[in-house]
């Protein structure tokens, strides 16, 4: 099949590369000349494990090309996917649909034959109908269908998630569009084909409901963790004991410094907004958004306590600033709330992150970037583990504590334990929802 992918960000590029690996002919389009130039040189503009090799393989096989020329990509395509950004609109929390609608109109103006216009971006309920209206208004003679195909991949594990999804959700209005979508995804499955075919609105709602639910689960365990600290329970044991219950499941029960990233913050806000617009307030989601902000604030209090009540004049080494490991994405990362509070409080902040510097330099002014954890912690008063990159999971804690001015650690991902830290010479150690040291 011939497919055009509009937008070569985290979702569009991964989807395009993976579709080409199934054997489809893919043309990826972006309006950012820097990205297209890089892609044409064989460089991947984002950090996503394994993407460079898979992309090179499919470019080599002649199934994957890149262009800024949307018209040439759409010509003869069986389906055109819209995978552009839908950030939070300034002021009201609504998803900003400017890029989606602009892409839909551009597609409509150049399409000639029957095509399925597929929204892969996360969009509020009702958007696909608006896309259909925009396309029909821009090109009244065009024979087309719209389809909603929300994406569930996780950055850092995107290829695996795309290749082996738990399910594919497709919202359609016609059998013809359903058939095109099934043909696109069938190569993924040798046996069972867990495609959930729905109407447009249900598909749009599934994505928001799923993300809001996951954000709720994370926030729930974060709130339980805060209580664990007060009552002397250990949240790691609590979440293990909870997660073994098949009705609950063990995923998304790791306590941490609050959820962040390119999806949960904006999608929870958008769902809350959709609820308000329909006079059905999403009270649980609204509470989750509020509690998550409190979780991040609580982290700052924790760090201040470990600095003896004030950040002023302290040297703090922060390990990890991306919103999770194995990505360079900094969008809405907890570090963007926590690090400025340290800098603003008068601390000298050294930051170490395997992939975060490129994005992070502009977002975290006033910090010093250091290549490795040992150099970053040399002479520091506090070590903070903020993102659990593999390289921070087996640190030589003794070497670190010996080099620090004051051997204090805030382990905001529960990588180590008070026993490990104490044995390695740390005089103070605090984590999330567990016993502290010192
Ligand atoms: P992104 O910002 O990384 O990429 C969007 C790309 O679209 C950019 O490269 C931009 O230049 C391009 N673009 C915008 N308008 C264009 C146009 N008219 N023509 C061509 N290119 C255009 O965004 P992302 O993280 O890939 O997210 C895309 C969508 O997928 C969002 O709705 C997001 O919520 C959803 N989503 C993201 C993830 C994730 O993990 N990032 C997961 C699931 C769903």
Automatic annotation (TrEMBL):
Which residues are responsible for catalysis? 263 (nucleophile)
Q: Which domain of life is it from?
A: Bacteria
Against InterPro entries, the record matches this protein to: 6-PGluconate_DH-like_C_sf (IPR008927), NAD(P)-bd_dom_sf (IPR036291), UDP-Glc/GDP-Man (IPR017476), UDP-Glc/GDP-Man_DH_C (IPR014027), UDP-Glc/GDP-Man_DH_C_sf (IPR036220), UDP-Glc/GDP-Man_DH_dimer (IPR014026), UDP-Glc/GDP-Man_DH_N (IPR001732), UDPglc_DH_bac (IPR028357)
Would I find Zinc-finger among this entry's keywords? Answer: no
- The entry marks the following residues as binding NAD(+), namely 30, 35, 86, 122, 155, 266, 331
GO function terms (MF aspect) = NAD binding; UDP-glucose 6-dehydrogenase activity
Write out the residues that bind substrate. Answer: 152-155, 207, 252-256, 260, 324
Q: What class of enzyme is it?
A: oxidoreductase
Pathway, per Swiss-Prot/TrEMBL? Nucleotide-sugar biosynthesis; UDP-alpha-D-glucuronate biosynthesis; UDP-alpha-D-glucuronate from UDP-alpha-D-glucose: step 1/1
EC number annotated for this UniProt entry:
1.1.1.22
This protein is called what?
UDP-glucose 6-dehydrogenase
Lineage, uppermost ranks: Bacteria, Pseudomonadati, Pseudomonadota, Alphaproteobacteria, Rhodobacterales
């Amino acid at each position: 099949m011939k497919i055009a992918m509009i937008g070569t960000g985290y979702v569009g590029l991964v989807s395009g590369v993976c579709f080409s690996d199934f054997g489809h002919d893919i043309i990826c389009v972006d309006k950012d000349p820097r990205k297209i130039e890089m892609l044409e040189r064989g460089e991947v503009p984002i950090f996503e494990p394994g993407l460079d090799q898979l992309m090179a393989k499919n470019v080599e096989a002649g199934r994957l090309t890149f262009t800024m020329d949307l018209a040439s990509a759409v010509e003869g395509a069986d389906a055109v996917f819209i995978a552009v950004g839908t950030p939070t609109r300034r002021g009201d929390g609504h998803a900003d649909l400017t890029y989606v609608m602009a892409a839909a109109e551009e597609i409509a103006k150049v399409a000639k034959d029957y095509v399925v216009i597929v929204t892969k971006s996360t969009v509020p309920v009702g958007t696909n109908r608006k896309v259909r209206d925009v396309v029909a208004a821009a090109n009244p003679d065009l024979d087309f269908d719209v389809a909603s195909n929300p994406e569930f991949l996780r950055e850092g594990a995107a290829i695996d998630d795309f290749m082996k999804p738990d399910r594919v959700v497709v919202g359609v209005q016609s059998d013809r569009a359903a058939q095109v979508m099934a043909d696109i995804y069938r190569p993924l499955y040798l046996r069972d084909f867990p495609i959930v075919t729905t109407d447009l609105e249900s598909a749009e709602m599934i994505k928001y409901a799923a993300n809001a639910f996951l954000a709720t689960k994370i926030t729930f365990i974060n709130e339980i963790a805060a209580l664990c600290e007060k009552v002397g329970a250990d949240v790691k044991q609590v979440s293990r004991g909870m997660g073994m219950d098949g009705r609950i499941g063990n995923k998304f029960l790791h306590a941490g410094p609050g959820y962040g990233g390119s999806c949960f913050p904006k999608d929870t806000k958008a769902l809350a907004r959709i609820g308000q617009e329909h006079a059905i307030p999403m009270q649980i989601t609204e509470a989750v958004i509020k509690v998550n902000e409190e979780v991040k604030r609580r982290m700052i209090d924790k760090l201040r306590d470990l600095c003896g009540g004030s950040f002023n004049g302290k040297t703090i080494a922060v390990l990890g600033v991306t919103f999770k490991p194995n990505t360079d994405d900094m969008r809405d990362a907890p570090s963007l709330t926590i690090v400025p509070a340290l800098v603003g409080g008068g601390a000298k902040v050294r930051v170490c992150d395997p992939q975060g510097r490129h994005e992070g330099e502009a977002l975290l002014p006033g910090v010093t970037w250091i290549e490795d954890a040992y150099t970053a912690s040399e002479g520091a008063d506090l070590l903070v583990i903020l993102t659990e990159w593999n390289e921070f999971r087996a640190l030589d804690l003794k070497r670190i504590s010996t080099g620090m001015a004051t051997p204090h650690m805030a382990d905001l991902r529960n990588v180590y334990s008070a026993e490990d830290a104490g044995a390695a010479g740390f005089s103070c150690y605090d984590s999330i929802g567990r016993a502290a040291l010192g």
